[in-house]
Amino acid sequence: MSGGPAGIGTADFFYREAQRLGYVARSAFKLIQIQKQHKLIAPGAAVLDLGCAPGAWLQVACQNLGPLEKGGVVVGVDVKKVKVPSAHCDSRVRTVCADLMTLMKKQARAMSPQERGFSVILSDMCPVVSGITTKDAAISCELGMRALSLAVGKMKAKDSDCIEVLEKFQSSTEPDPDDDGILRRGGSLVIKFLENEDIPGFAKFCKEKFKKVSLLRPKATRSSSREIYMICEGLR
């Protein structure tokens, strides 16, 4: 299948749809598809959105919280200040400006209701793409690793045969002495990666921690993009 105009056409479709429906970015449709297929966000959920700019996933997450009386929260974290979009968001959505590479689990947990952690963690973080494939993939894995360790806590994978992959990206500067993750038992985690040979190692580790792990390339992904989402359901 050749890329080119068809890819551009698809981009235009999702871009136009986003404008028509009041989403701040076409990436909204990626989470819409993930949610449709996996039903991760239940009414009243506590959702943490890592790398939330420009805010499209905040909108979709809030839409899935159900009516206001159900409660729930959506907390978006990004290294730049993000204004909560006015469309599709209500008082349950807020944003925090912080660098995820230095954010302590204790600080992240403090953002959750009653500090009990989150039921869903979404990471749409992506490196500033340099065009150097291996470099971009490595940074993408580091960001994925950070999301994973925030969610499930210290990687005790000594007995795991994916330890090499984990240690490769468990940044030597892991800032956090806290052993416990901030994802509640039974919770779900979504991580965006740029496709590379280390993903199977990540998936293998996640399969030890979660009941179900799958990979998805949403339809709204541009044809030129190498991004893929790892969807982990049911933290053990």
TrEMBL record:
The highest taxon in the source lineage is Eukaryota
Entries under InterPro entries matching the protein:
RNA_methyltr_RlmE, RNA_MeTrfase_FtsJ_dom, rRNA-MeTfrase_E, SAM-dependent_MTases_sf
Sorted UniProt keywords: Methyltransferase, rRNA processing, S-adenosyl-L-methionine, Transferase
Gene3D superfamilies reported for this sequence: Vaccinia Virus protein VP39
User: A single GO molecular function, which one?
Assistant: rRNA (uridine-2'-O-)-methyltransferase activity
- Domain named Ribosomal RNA methyltransferase FtsJ is located at 23-234
Give the annotated active site.
192
What Pfam families does UniProt report for this protein, alphabetically? FtsJ (PF01728)
What is the similarity comment for this entry? Belongs to the class I-like SAM-binding methyltransferase superfamily. RNA methyltransferase RlmE family.
HAMAP family (UniProt xref): RNA_methyltr_E
Q: How is this protein named in the record?
A: rRNA methyltransferase 2, mitochondrial
Originating organism: Leersia perrieri
